Amino acid sequence: MDAQERGDFSEIPILDVSPLYGDDEGAIRETAATLRRYLETIGFLYVTGHPIPRTDVEAVREASKRFFALPEEEKAKLKIDKNFRGYLPFAGSTIVTSSVAAVSKPNQSESIFFMHEVGADDPRALAGKPLQGPNQWPDEAALAGFRETIERYVQEMGTLARKMVRAIALSLGLPSDSLDRYFEQPTTFLRLLHYPTQPQEEGLFGSAPHTDYGFITLLAQDNVGGLEVKNKAGDWVPAPPVPDSFVMNVGDILARWSNDQFVSTPHRVINRSGRERYSQPFFFDPSMDETIAALSVCVPAGTQPKYEPVLYGDYLMERIDKNYHYRKKKAAEAAAS
């Protein structure tokens, strides 16, 4: 890659990943090579050609709208817990760890998180390990079919994410299954987001400029728009909705894993459309117990990795604890007791 190309873009490219679901090795490798180019130069792309039905994507969006339309007292029954599952009220996070901008105002959104399902009797939950516990679900009587809709979608997104993990491995010249072990018990988040129309105010964002923490993000947008990606010239490039696509981007842990060969690109959301915006990012990350060290294939001969190895769980918790208001409040209460 020509170093001058990194970050030099004016639109987000589209990649048809249908070959990843077939057995034509040549087409798979060609797709992986194109993916590598996009991850090295932009860190963002639209993923098309996947088999996830539009009806399943739209069913999640409709479920999201139904949830956020509930009275505040009903949503509050699912208030986000110590395991980072549940409802985060409006303006409940401020991205203080942003390396992109000095952020002082909370994000203008409300959301609900569903992570990888961990039963209350699972050894990880019984041991009190971070972020290990059951999801919180709305009352079936209030939102019939909600859980079934979400769980079907999470399964489909997990399959797509694993296809992308293997394509990333191939793109680096590694065996396709070389990264699989890091995702045997993946850390996953499905975050349903509701962005009301925001007022014109300096420093106010639906989602302030930031980079994602993890491995990859796969985002389904509605037709409102508002997502923007920052290029090296400092321009914010729109990432408008593309039918039947997911916006995929590199997270910080993948950038770190690749020794910054792949770029974790700043992005933001500003909703000044005059309409409410709904989005559903799916975050696919390694197991909390996996140590992430720079891949040797990404470290030039005679040089040292840019980053020390890190336990993914420690890395993730540091960022969550700093950016979410309810975590900071709990930490303050613990320190005072």
Automatic annotation (TrEMBL):
<dbReference type="GO" id="GO:0102276">
    <property type="term" value="F:2-oxoglutarate oxygenase/decarboxylase (ethylene-forming) activity"/>
</dbReference>
<keyword id="KW-0266">Ethylene biosynthesis</keyword>
<dbReference type="InterPro" id="IPR027443">
    <property type="entry name" value="IPNS-like_sf"/>
</dbReference>
<comment type="similarity">
    <text>Belongs to the iron/ascorbate-dependent oxidoreductase family.</text>
</comment>
<dbReference type="InterPro" id="IPR026992">
    <property type="entry name" value="DIOX_N"/>
</dbReference>
<protein>
    <recommendedName>
        <fullName>2-oxoglutarate-dependent ethylene/succinate-forming enzyme</fullName>
        <ecNumber>1.13.12.19</ecNumber>
        <ecNumber>1.14.20.7</ecNumber>
    </recommendedName>
</protein>
<dbReference type="GO" id="GO:0046872">
    <property type="term" value="F:metal ion binding"/>
</dbReference>
<dbReference type="InterPro" id="IPR044861">
    <property type="entry name" value="IPNS-like_FE2OG_OXY"/>
</dbReference>
<keyword id="KW-0408">Iron</keyword>
<dbReference type="GO" id="GO:0051213">
    <property type="term" value="F:dioxygenase activity"/>
</dbReference>
<dbReference type="InterPro" id="IPR005123">
    <property type="entry name" value="Oxoglu/Fe-dep_dioxygenase_dom"/>
</dbReference>
<feature type="domain" description="Fe2OG dioxygenase">
    <location>
        <begin position="186"/>
        <end position="286"/>
    </location>
</feature>
<dbReference type="Pfam" id="PF14226">
    <property type="entry name" value="DIOX_N"/>
</dbReference>
<keyword id="KW-0223">Dioxygenase</keyword>
<dbReference type="GO" id="GO:0009693">
    <property type="term" value="P:ethylene biosynthetic process"/>
</dbReference>
<keyword id="KW-0479">Metal-binding</keyword>
<keyword id="KW-0560">Oxidoreductase</keyword>
<dbReference type="InterPro" id="IPR050231">
    <property type="entry name" value="Iron_ascorbate_oxido_reductase"/>
</dbReference>
<comment type="pathway">
    <text>Alkene biosynthesis; ethylene biosynthesis via 2-oxoglutarate.</text>
</comment>
<dbReference type="Pfam" id="PF03171">
    <property type="entry name" value="2OG-FeII_Oxy"/>
</dbReference>
